[in-house]
């Protein structure tokens, strides 16, 4: 079946002297009358009115388009295959008018026309082209769903589902993944409407299954035509799991909703409405923390509320609602001894997921400097969380991410490389104080020493920056120098004090003293000549005090 032959209509025939588009009932001259009597011209005229409606949103132009569609069916041969497409378009226009303006009669006309279009198509060996047939079936299904929402008749629901499944079958035969995913979203919405009306758990289970299929069939790649469908399906799936939780209070449903919402946040982290994503996650975690009384879940609520309010302008329509919810959460968390309200602002799970997603999307071979920066940010996010919750897994993740950052740092970024190695050492040594494993301590010392060696050897790092790095290395070694802290572990610590060179007998305290002395010397090179209490002088004084402390541990000046 082919489309009607395109026809050009002179604008002068259908516009008034002032350029306004004339209604079809005003086309009275003989030349104008041909526009209403020849089907190809009438089809084109209807398209002109439809496009005008889409641009202006004025109902009168949709009415004109419907007039043309009605007239077209009146003059077109009933046995012509193209009539089926006109029937579909006629019904679709009535459906559009119902969706916009809610006239019940329009919906019934649309359903009858679309049903006839599909029925005629079946009677005539499905001569509608595949994509048009899919559109007709989908439009028919949607109209039946709308009537089901009004009249609550199971027959309309069942017929809508049958039509939608037929549309899905049509698109699958065409390999049209975008429309397959769209139909699956519509199926999820259809079952969700049934659940809303009936509170039937089987309906929401079916809605979740359809939404999951839609997610799998669509694409989270922003450049994909199916990306919008993916985001719609993900938001719908989040809502469905939340609703099922409200029905049966299964914690697993909330966890599923949160997992999906966090993944959605990761993909849409740069979207202009991410304040809404923060708000949704705050609501989900608030439901969860009321069930678990978990400090971590409370911190997630706090973090997402901060993000939401920070990104919501004062004059935004949703500002008042979000502030009110924030106050509700604050009072509940503050009164709960086990959770409290987290004022430290640690990164949320969603922000961690978003950072990891950004790294995963970066691709191999692309700007290692930028990738190293992303890993550095991830490491600091994990470490901030570790300082908040003291969970060993967070510290280990911080170490691994910072190791990746140091590994990827280009050779010409020596200052960044030194700083990242130093941070690996700092993280590992701090973790060693908690877990006391030799491997952790070895990693810390190895990283600190490498940072110090590269720092001294580098020619393009300012002396004050070198001084800070070497002082940092000395400070990391300082807790290890007081062997009285370690009791039975003193031998293990002492064995690691091998200095820079193979065979060196330098102890940890000697190594720390050497780094501290180098830091004092470097600070003096570019520091003030007179101690006037400025920031540089205060920094140098701190280096001197630490050197004297290490010397006192060593038992010599």
What would your notes on this structure say?
The protein has 557 residues and is an all-alpha fold. It contains 24 helices and no strands. Helix 9 runs antiparallel to helix 10, helix 12 crosses helix 16 and helix 13 packs antiparallel against helix 14. The protein starts with 10 loop residues before the first helix and ends with a helix. This is TPR-like protein. It comes from Aspergillus pseudoviridinutans.
User: What is the N-to-C succession of helices and strands?
Assistant: HHHHHHHHHHHHHHHHHHHHHHHH
Strand content: under 5%
Q: Please, what is the average pLDDT? A: 86
Instruction: Tell me roughly what share of residues is in helical segments.
Output: over 70%
Instruction: Give me the number of helical elements.
Output: 24
Helix/sheet category: mainly alpha
Query: Gyration radius, to the nearest Å?
Result: 35 Å
Briefly say what this structure is.
With 557 residues, the chain is mostly helical. 75% of the residues lie in helices and 0% in strands.
């Amino acid at each position: 079946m082919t489309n009607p032959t395109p026809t050009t209509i002179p604008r002068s025939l259908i516009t008034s002297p002032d350029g306004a588009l004339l209604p079809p009932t005003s086309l009275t001259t003989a030349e104008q009358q041909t526009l209403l009597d020849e089907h190809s011209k009438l089809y084109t005229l209807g398209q002109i009115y439809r496009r005008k409606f889409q641009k202006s949103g004025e109902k009168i132009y949709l009415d004109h388009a419907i007039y043309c569609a009605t007239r077209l069916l009146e003059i077109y041969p009933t046995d012509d295959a193209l009539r089926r497409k006109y029937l579909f378009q006629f019904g679709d226009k009535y459906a559009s008018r119902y969706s916009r303006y809610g006239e019940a009669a329009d919906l019934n006309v649309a359903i009858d026309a679309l049903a006839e279009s599909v029925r005629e198509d079946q009677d005539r060996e499905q001569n509608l082209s595949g994509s048009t047939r899919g559109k007709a079936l989908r439009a028919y299904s949607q109209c039946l769903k709308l009537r089901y929402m009004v009249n609550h008749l199971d027959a309309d629901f069942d017929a809508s589902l049958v039509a939608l499944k037929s549309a899905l079958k049509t698109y699958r035969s065409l390999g049209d993944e975008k429309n397959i995913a769209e139909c699956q979203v519509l199926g999820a919405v259809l079952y969700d409407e049934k659940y809303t009306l009936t509170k039937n758990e089987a309906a929401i289970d079916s809605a979740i299954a359809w939404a999951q299929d839609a997610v799998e069939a669509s694409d989270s790649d922003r450049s994909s035509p199916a990306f919008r469908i993916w985001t719609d399906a993900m938001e719908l799936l989040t809502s469905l799991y939340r609703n099922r939780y409200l029905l049966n209070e299964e914690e697993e449903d909330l966890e599923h909703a949160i997992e999906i919402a966090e993944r959605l946040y990761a993909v849409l982290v740069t979207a202009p409405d991410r304040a809404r994503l923060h708000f949704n996650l705050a609501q989900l975690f608030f439901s969860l923390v009321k069930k678990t009384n978990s400090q971590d879940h409370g911190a997630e609520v706090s973090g997402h509320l901060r993000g939401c309010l920070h990104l919501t302008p004062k004059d935004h329509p949703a500002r008042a609602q979000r502030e009110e919810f924030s106050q509700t959460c604050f009072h509940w968390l503050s009164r709960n001894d086990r959770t409290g309200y987290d004022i430290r602002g640690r990164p949320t799970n969603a922000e961690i997921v978003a950072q990891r997603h950004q790294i995963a999307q970066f691709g191999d071979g692309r700007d290692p400097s930028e990738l190293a920066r992303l890993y550095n940010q991830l490491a600091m996010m994990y470490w901030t969380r570790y300082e908040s919750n003291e969970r060993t897994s967070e510290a280990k993740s911080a170490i691994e991410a910072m190791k990746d950052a140091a590994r990827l740092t280009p050779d010409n970024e020596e200052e960044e490389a030194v700083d990242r190695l130093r941070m690996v050492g700092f993280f590992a040594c701090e973790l060693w104080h908690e877990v006391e494993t030799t491997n952790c301590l070895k990693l810390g010392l190895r990283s600190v020493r490498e940072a110090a060696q590269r720092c001294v050897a580098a020619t393009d790092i300012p002396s004050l920056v070198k001084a800070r790095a070497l002082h940092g290395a000395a400070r990391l070694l300082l807790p290890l120098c007081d062997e009285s802290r370690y009791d039975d572990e003193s031998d293990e610590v002492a064995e690691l004090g091998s200095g820079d060179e193979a065979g060196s007998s330098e102890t940890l305290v000697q190594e720390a003293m050497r780094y501290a002395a180098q830091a004092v010397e470097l600070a003096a090179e570019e520091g003030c000549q007179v101690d006037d209490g400025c920031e540089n002088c205060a920094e140098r004084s701190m280096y001197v005090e630490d050197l004297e402390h290490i010397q006192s541990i060593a038992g010599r000046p």
